[in-house]
Amino acid sequence: MKITANGIDIHYTIEGEGPVVTMSHALGCNLSLWDKQAQALSGRYRVLRYDMRGHGHTSAPPGPYSLEQMADDLYGLLTGLGVRQTHLVGISMGGMIGQIFALKYPMLLQSLVLCSTTSHYPAAARSAWVERIRTVEANGVEPMVEPAIQRWFTPSFREHQPDVMDRVHTMIRNTPPQGYIGCCHAIPTIDVTDRLREVRCPALVIAGKGDPGTPVAMARDIQAALPSSELAILSPASHLCNLEQPDEFNRALLDFLDKVAG
Description:
CATH superfamily: Alpha/Beta hydrolase fold, catalytic domain
Number of domains: 1
Order of helices and strands: EEEHEHEHEHHHHHEHEHH
Largest sheet: 8 strands, mixed
Distance between the termini: 30 Å
Number of strands: 8
Number of helices: 11
CATH class: Alpha Beta
Strand content: 15-25%
Shape: globular
Structural class: alpha/beta
């Protein structure tokens, strides 16, 4: 299904009935990243998943994009669908959008789950994103595939889960280069650690113990800054811990949601 919001067509899917849980995916992925979570949640929640700007079947206009713009995309999606309140789950870039959304539209949030993400990048890290942009401009997204797989999963998981690796390879390869580049402009601008104390809804922070891109220290910084939050560390797991440890991830997520949703 698609809806026009904030000047783009947003592709989304809804499963189940109950309190709304909205799920935002990572860079180079799409809403199918959350398949196992949607299956686990849809028995008692209304699960709304969507493809972000520049990804999947959502529009990929020329960039650069901003995190505020993508938070506005989400606001347009929710209000267009008549959703007055939601629990919001975001992983990696989706977690960055979640933080901006929580600060900009707090009245819509019942709870916030931030996975494998950060609230701040040091200035020195920005050069790596500039290099990614140049690479994709010159050669498309293919050069991004293997480095992402190396960062996103532990060596043992990569070796023993070829079907998952194939799925993730395909997601990255199918990401429009224009969309990937647009988001690479947005990601390194995240800098909200000092503002997270403004977030009043309950929050859960989830991290993979072996994540090199957004390590546990970044998760601890977020959890310390959020007034009403808890932390779950999954091991063994790297960046896409929802795929590497789906049972543990789903257990932590459902325990939290069931508690805050009553």
